[in-house]
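During data preparation, a discrete fold description was generated, and the record follows.
___
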Amino acid sequence: MDLVVTPDLTRWGWKDEDEYAHVRRLGIVSGAEYQVVDDAIETAVTSLDPGNCDATGTGA
């Protein structure tokens, strides 16, 4: 899935969420793969908090 974020980190969304849900329904993505993606989503969303970034916009 592609995460689309505004430069000021105030808005974000998943570009391919519907396609991902479709391949999940078809069984193309396994439960284990889904868990890896779900964990990565959590990490990505957490990193969008401006308090988690230094002045360069990278992780603190």
In short: The CA atoms of residues 18 and 31 lie 17 Å apart. The radius of gyration is 14 Å. The helical segments are 17-26, 31-47. Confidence is low (pLDDT under 50) at residues 55-60.
